[in-house]
């Protein structure tokens, strides 16, 4: 367990430094591309004209801005660090990193659509906090835990006994 925790934080720091923080052309491109994919996914479900650039217009006076922090990369990298730290075959790790990316990308789009839906309701702007920070993040945590538990259960590498 100590090995897993140590490797988890090591992988997490490396992934954030090289793939999330604005430290290289690769991380900038990756985050820009992920944001564009998220915006495209949202555009399929939003009303025509509601999405303008990175802004989702709720009313003429209120918009939600989709920034790098909203593109879903943070939970993806948290899952990837867990997968990399857990003992398993390279094929199994790569497979689950791809599956995790796909599931989290879809879950993030669903999360943002949920936020838009609740903000468009009677409570309006007041609904943003609980829809985004509470329900939205709870959705991402449940998806992440479900994916990691499934990854562990499908791994053919037994945990060492202590």
Task: Give structural attributes.
7% strand, mainly alpha, single chain, 162 residues, three-stranded antiparallel beta sheet, 5 helices
How would you describe what is shown here?
The protein has 162 residues and is mostly helical. It has one domain. Helix content is 68%, strand content 7%. A 3-stranded antiparallel beta sheet has the order 1-2-3. A hairpin with a 2-residue loop joins strand 1 and strand 2. Helix 1 runs antiparallel to helix 3 and helix 3 runs antiparallel to helix 4. The longest helix has 30 residues. 22% of the residues are buried. The model has no long low-confidence stretch (mean pLDDT 93).
> Biggest β-sheet, characterized?
3 strands, antiparallel
Total beta strand runs: 3
| Total of domains | 1
Regions with little confidence, pLDDT below 50 for 5+ residues: none
Shape: elongated
Strand content range: 5-15%
| H/I helix tally | 5
Q: Taking Cα atoms only, what radius of gyration do you get, to the nearest Å?
A: 18 Å
Distance, first to last CA: 10 Å
- Helical proportion, percent range: 55-70%
């Amino acid at each position: 367990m100590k090995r897993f925790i140590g490797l988890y934080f090591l992988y997490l720091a490396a992934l954030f430094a090289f793939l999330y923080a604005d430290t290289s052309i690769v991380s900038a491109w990756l985050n820009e591309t992920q944001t564009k994919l998220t915006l495209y996914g949202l555009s399929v479900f939003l009303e025509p004209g509601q999405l303008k650039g990175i802004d989702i217009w709720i009313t003429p006076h209120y918009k939600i801005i989709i920034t790098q922090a909203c593109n879903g990369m943070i939970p993806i990298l948290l899952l990837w660090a867990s997968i990399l730290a857990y003992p398993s075959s390279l094929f199994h790790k790569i497979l689950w990193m791809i599956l995790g990316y796909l599931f989290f990308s879809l879950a993030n789009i669903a999360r943002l659509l949920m936020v838009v839906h609740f903000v468009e309701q009677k409570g309006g702007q007041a609904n943003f906090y609980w829809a985004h920070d509470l329900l939205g993040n709870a959705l991402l945590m449940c998806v992440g835990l479900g994916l990691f538990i499934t990854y562990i259960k499908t791994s053919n590498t037994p945990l060492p006994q202590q």
